[in-house]
UniProtKB/TrEMBL annotation:
One of its GO terms (molecular function) is N-acetyltransferase activity. Keywords: Acyltransferase, Transferase. The lineage of its organism: Bacteria, Bacillati, Bacillota, Bacilli, Lactobacillales. The keyword Transferase applies. NCBIfam families: rimI. The gene is ycjC. InterPro entries: AcTrfase_RimI/Ard1, Acyl_CoA_acyltransferase, Bact_Acetyltransf, GNAT_dom. The keyword Transferase applies. SUPFAM superfamilies: Acyl-CoA N-acyltransferases (Nat). This is Ribosomal-protein-alanine acetyltransferase.
Amino acid sequence: MKQLIHDIFKKFELTDFRKYQTFDDVDVDMVIDSTRYRISEREDIVSFLAIERDVYAGDTPWTFSHFEHEITINEHATFLTAESAGKIVGFVGARVSPEHQSVHLSNLAVSSNFQKQGIGSTLVKTMAELMRQLGVATLTLEVKRDNLPAQAMYRKLGFATTEILPQYYDNKLDGLWMVKQLQETRK
Ligand SMILES: CC(C)(COP(=O)(O)OP(=O)(O)OC[C@H]1O[C@@H](n2cnc3c(N)ncnc32)[C@H](O)[C@@H]1OP(=O)(O)O)[C@@H](O)C(=O)NCCC(=O)NCCS
């Protein structure tokens, strides 16, 4: 991108962050190790709920409406889908701050049969690279303190824990706030 998204949005008075999908130089649709990574669609949500039930022992922390809001309504959100042999096997969501300086990973999961194959890492890396290209400076997330597999993945991807969030979750479990710099903060 020749200009940062912040400047483009300001110049054209755009409010919907997802307008980035119409920019010529931003393209998220690629195949890595026979898995396709692409922008999510409303039709993917049923599969996302099945993935949630699979990885959270029958629970769905996010409902259909949560996903629908982030994929079709929230102008500051975007979602990526991972597809293997035509089957949806993972997703990652992100929400940018109003001025696009930082982005927060809102949700991430990979079907249990497809875990440990690099798909979770590629989803996060793809989202991070997209946001870096769009000029976003910082990527943040929160993760349960006992979710060691996810923490190991995030550390490998260059995230560092900057804060402990005491009793952050409904079950009073602590959270960790993790941060990765995508590029130098703009002055
Ligand atoms: C966390 C999650 C998305 C990782 O997806 P994945 O596709 O399995 O991750 P990757 O294959 O890219 O793994 C990358 C690294 O993460 C770590 N990791 C992943 N799964 C792990 C496990 N079960 N145990 C220990 N480390 C693990 C490893 O360091 C791994 O690198 P390696 O394969 O070289 O050892 C997946 O386990 C998941 O969906 N979990 C349930 C939902 C969840 O916890 N989401 C995150 C909420 S913050």
